[in-house]
Design a protein that fits this description.
Order of helices and strands: HHHHHEHEHEHEEH
Largest sheet: 3 strands, parallel
Distance between the termini: 24 Å
Length: about 220
C-alpha cells in the first residue's frame, strides 16, 4: 500500500461508496477525522496495544460516535471492506518495475494489512505472480515493526543473505523501523524532500519507485 498500490485512492473510493450507501455526505472534514482516527488505531496495532480485529471492527463505531450516531461497527466494516477490496489502482509504473525486478531478484510482499484484502488487490492489479510469497502479519502472529515478523519472514526464505536484503516501503513506523530492528537496509518511498530530521532514519530515501534502480545498481 502506497508503495506499489495507491491505497489513498482505494480508501477514498471505498469511503465514498460506503457513505453513499448509508445516505450520508462524506465531507472533507469527516474524511480527515476518519483517517486520523484510523491512523491512530493502526499505530496502536504496530505497538502491540491493539489487535487487528479491534482496529478494523471498532473504527467505524468510534468514528460515528464522534457524530453522536450509533452504528453496527462490524457490519459497517464489512461493507467498507467489500468496497476497499475492489481498489487496486497502481502507483505510477509499479507493475512494469516489479515485472523487471522479478527477473533480477527474489521479491516478497510483507504487509500488516488484512490478508484477504491484500491477496485480492494484488491479484487484481496483476502483481501477484511476480512475488515468491506474500507474508501478512495476521498469518505470522507478529506485525511490522516487530522483530518476530522479520524472523518469521527470514525463516521462509532459503539461503537468505541479509546483507543483500532490503525492505522498500512508505511507512517509517512499520517498514523502516522494522527493517532497522531486523538489521537490513531500508528504502523509504515518500515524496517528502528533506529526510534529515526524521526520528526513524532509512538507509535510503526515494520519492518515486523508479529511483530504486539508482540504489540497487
Amino acid at each position: 500500500d502506497d508503495t506499489l498500490l495507491d491505497f489513498q485512492a482505494a480508501e477514498n473510493q471505498a469511503l465514498r461508496m460506503l457513505f453513499e450507501q448509508e445516505g450520508l455526505e462524506l465531507t472533507t472534514e469527516l474524511e480527515k477525522i476518519y483517517k486520523e482516527l484510523n491512523e491512530q488505531r493502526w499505530r496502536a496495532f504496530e505497538a502491540g496495544k491493539m489487535s487487528r480485529e479491534t482496529v478494523v471492527n471498532g473504527r467505524f463505531g468510534e468514528f460515528f460516535a464522534q457524530m453522536n450516531r450509533t452504528v453496527d461497527s462490524i457490519a459497517m466494516e464489512q461493507k467498507y471492506r467489500y468496497f476497499l477490496n475492489q481498489g487496486h489502482q497502481l502507483l505510477g509504473n509499479s507493475l512494469a518495475i516489479i515485472a523487471d525486478l522479478a527477473q533480477k531478484a527474489d521479491l516478497y510482499v510483507v504487509s500488516n494489512g488484512v490478508s484477504k484484502t491484500q491477496y485480492q488487490r494484488l491479484g487484481d492489479a496483476q502483481l501477484l505472480p511476480y512475488f515468491k510469497e506474500v507474508i501478512i502479519s495476521e498469518d505470522t502472529g507478529y506485525q511490522k515493526p516487530m522483530l518476530g515478523f522479520f524472523e518469521y519472514t527470514f525463516n521462509k526464505i532459503s539461503q537468505l543473505n541479509q546483507e543483500k536484503t532490503v525492505i522498500i516501503g512508505d511507512s517509517l513506523t512499520s517498514d523502516i523501523q522494522g527493517g532497522n530492528n531486523a538489521g537490513i537496509d531500508t528504502i523509504w518511498l515518500h515524496p517528502l524532500v528533506d529526510a534529515d530530521e526524521l526520528v526513524v532514519q532509512p538507509t535510503h530515501h526515494i520519492q518515486r519507485l523508479e529511483e530504486i534502480y539508482e540504489i540497487l545498481m
